């Protein structure tokens, strides 16, 4: 009887934890969370924070399995390489570290960087791109580092480009001027090329997320608020075709995530405490996660490799406290 009762209690607990839209908090970070990554091999969640740590979470127990705290300053960006064997992290002291995910040890000595990095992404071939201060993009390929140029610096308030990973041989970046550019990594000395979206020159973008041949982006029409939209990328990396509008929170969507295989698109805004989840490719509504942390601002979103979990990073307005949530 005792064994049966215990088993029933566990089953009830698991069922309660699996209610759709019910946030489960992962507690530990003391500062703003600036990066979320999922390990496709182990199903673990990785989070980077201004508290100077990177935490590797066991989702089943909702406890941190490992703490990487060798950084001397706030961590500003993190990315896991395509083979899930290592991660790269950077901090405010302009130090770049690579970590082995098997041994959890730093690979070699930290490498100094010429400027602050706020975004990292990997191409399928292992080429790493860093979005740096002053709108520079630096590539790391086969041990060589070179600067591929810079974006328009017309907006002094946001000069850090966002790098998105594309399928095949291409990387995509969103610059401070709201325009997208892509690189063909097979070409020697990558040079950014114009990225066309339906041939409409008046469109600008606030944020973007990619998965395979799909692009989810918040588009602003001629200075207006705009809305999130779903695009299909062209095979040659030259642009994308707009398919559907995906309305979300009543505010500019600065954080997005997309999982094409599971058919989900998540949209969040730092000004509205909501996360909208829509089905793709038709954009029909599926779920609204309302106020996941009382009055907190949504900062980052990331789907698990199987599409079951959505990781949500929030920050309390006026404070430095960061919150990390899981939604089934």
Estimate what percentage of residues fall within beta strands: over 45%
Distance between the termini: 31 Å
Estimated helix fraction:
under 10%
Low-confidence stretches: 1-18, 152-159
Oligomer: single chain
- How many helical elements? 1
Order of helices and strands: HEEEEEEEEEEEEEEEEEEEEEEEEEEEEE
Give the biggest beta sheet.
5 strands, mixed
Radius of gyration over alpha carbons? 20 Å
Mean pLDDT: 80
Which secondary-structure class do the elements indicate? Answer: mainly beta
In which order are the strands of the major sheet placed? 18-22-21-20-19
Strand element count: 29
Give a quick summary of the entry.
The chain contains one helix and 29 strands. By secondary structure, it is mainly beta.
Plain-language structure description:
The chain is mainly β. Helix content is 5%, strand content 50%. The strands form seven sheets. The protein has a five-stranded mixed β-sheet, with no helix packed on it. Strands 1-29-28-27 form a four-stranded antiparallel β-sheet, with no helix packed on it. Strand 14 (162-165) and strand 15 (170-174) form a beta hairpin. The radius of gyration is 20 Å and the shape is globular. Residues 1-18 and 152-159 have low confidence and may be disordered.
Question: What topology emerges from the helices and strands here?
Answer:
Elements: H1 2-17, E1 24-26, E2 33-38, E3 45-49, E4 54-58, E5 63-68, E6 75-80, E7 86-91, E8 95-100, E9 111-112, E10 117-122, E11 128-132, E12 136-141, E13 144-150, E14 162-165, E15 170-174, E16 180-184, E17 193-194, E18 196-197, E19 203-211, E20 214-221, E21 227-233, E22 239-246, E23 255-259, E24 264-269, E25 272-279, E26 285-290, E27 297-303, E28 310-315, E29 322-327
Parallel strand pairs: 18-22
Antiparallel strand pairs: 1-29, 2-3, 3-4, 4-5, 6-7, 7-8, 8-9, 10-11, 11-12, 12-13, 14-15, 15-16, 16-17, 19-20, 20-21, 21-22, 23-24, 24-25, 25-26, 27-28, 28-29
């Amino acid at each position: 009887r005792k064994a049966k009762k215990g088993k029933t209690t566990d089953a009830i607990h698991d069922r309660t934890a699996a209610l759709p839209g019910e946030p489960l908090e992962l507690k530990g970070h003391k500062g703003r969370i600036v990066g979320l990554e999922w390990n496709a091999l182990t199903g673990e969640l990785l989070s980077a924070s201004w508290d100077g740590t990177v935490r590797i979470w066991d989702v089943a127990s909702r406890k941190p399995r490992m703490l990487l705290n060798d950084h001397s300053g706030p961590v500003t960006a993190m990315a896991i390489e395509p083979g899930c064997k290592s991660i790269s992290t950077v901090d405010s002291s302009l130090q770049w570290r690579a970590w082995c995910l098997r041994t959890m040890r730093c690979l070699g000595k930290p490498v100094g960087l010429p400027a602050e990095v706020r975004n990292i992404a990997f191409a399928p071939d292992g080429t790493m791109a860093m979005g740096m201060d002053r709108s520079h993009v630096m590539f790391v390929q086969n041990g060589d580092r070179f600067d591929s140029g810079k974006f328009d610096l017309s907006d002094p308030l946001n000069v850090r480009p966002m790098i998105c990973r594309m399928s095949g041989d291409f990387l995509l970046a969103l610059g401070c001027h709201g325009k997208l550019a892509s690189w063909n990594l097979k070409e020697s000395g990558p040079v950014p090329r114009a990225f066309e979206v339906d041939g409409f020159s008046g469109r600008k973008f606030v944020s973007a997320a990619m998965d395979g041949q799909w692009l989810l982006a918040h588009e602003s029409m001629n200075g207006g608020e705009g809305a999130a939209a779903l695009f299909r990328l062209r095979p040659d990396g030259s642009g994308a075709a707009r398919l559907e509008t995906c309305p979300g929170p009543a505010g500019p969507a600065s954080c997005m995530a997309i999982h094409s295989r599971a058919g989900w698109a998540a949209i969040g805004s730092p000004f509205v405490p909501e996360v909208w989840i829509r089905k793709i490719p038709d954009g029909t509504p599926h779920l609204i996660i309302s106020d996941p942390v009382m009055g907190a601002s949504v900062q980052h979103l990331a789907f698990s490799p199987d599409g079951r979990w959505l990781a949500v990073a929030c920050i309390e307005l006026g404070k430095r406290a960061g919150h990390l949530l899981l939604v089934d």
